[in-house]
């Protein structure tokens, strides 16, 4: 049986532009981070404001098993299953913390054949958002520390 990493590394990734087009996202609404990653511009909200809203399924507060079947794996599997039965489903996941880097927890990329790839990119910096939040947090902490010390 293949490991999660072997499965992730053997996956043939599709260009993000093709995936976005399948769900109606236009090329000008994407901020690309290479061929397989992108952010969606908030400008899309103006274009779709008159369209009927979809349904939301929230997967939260699951106790993971020792094999790692937690919220992310369940969410990814659910998205795959809904698409398999012909529903137009997309999932949204938060960027993982640094737990996976230190071997403390899973990488928030799923497991088995219910994974988000590229796993290595997701666990190490992804689009830079977590780094930006960390830097802003550190700046504010330094400002507060200086204010308390200097008066």
Biggest sheet character = 2 strands, antiparallel
Head-to-tail CA distance between termini: 61 Å
* Derived structural class: mainly alpha
Rg computed from alpha carbons, rounded to a whole number of angstroms: 19 Å
Strand order of the largest sheet: 1-2
Strand content: 5-15%
Q: Encode the helix/strand succession as letters.
A: HHEEHHEEHH
Low-confidence stretches: none
Pick out its properties.
151 residues; two-stranded antiparallel sheet; mainly alpha; 7% strand; globular
What would you say about this model in short?
With 151 residues, this protein is mostly helical. The longest helix has 22 residues.
How would you sum up this structure, described in words?
- The chain has helices spanning 4-10, 16-22, 44-48, 71-84, 119-123, 129-150, and strands at 30-32, 38-40, 110-111, 114-115.
- It has 6 helices and 4 strands.
- The strands form 2 sheets. It has a two-stranded antiparallel sheet. Strands 3-4 form a two-stranded antiparallel ribbon.
- With 151 residues, it is mainly alpha-helical.
- It is globular, with a radius of gyration of 19 Å.
- The relative contact order is 0.12.
- Helices cover 40% and strands 7% of the residues.
- The model has no long low-confidence stretch (mean pLDDT 83).
């Amino acid at each position: 049986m293949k490991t999660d990493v072997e499965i992730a590394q053997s996956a043939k990734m599709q260009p993000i532009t093709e995936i976005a087009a399948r769900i109606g996202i236009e090329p000008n609404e994407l901020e690309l981070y290479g061929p397989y990653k992108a952010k969606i511009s908030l400008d899309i909200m103006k274009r779709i404001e008159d369209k009927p809203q979809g349904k939301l399924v929230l997967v939260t507060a699951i106790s993971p098993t020792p094999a790692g079947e937690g919220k992310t794996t369940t969410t990814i599997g659910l998205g795959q299953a809904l698409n398999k039965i012909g529903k137009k489903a997309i999932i949204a996941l938060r960027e993982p913390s640094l737990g996976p880097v230190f071997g403390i927890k899973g990488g928030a990329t799923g497991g088995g054949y219910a994974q988000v790839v590229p796993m290595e990119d997701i666990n190490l910096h992804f689009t830079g958002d977590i780094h930006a939040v960390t830097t802003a947090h550190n700046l504010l902490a330094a400002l507060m520390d200086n204010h308390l010390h200097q008066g």
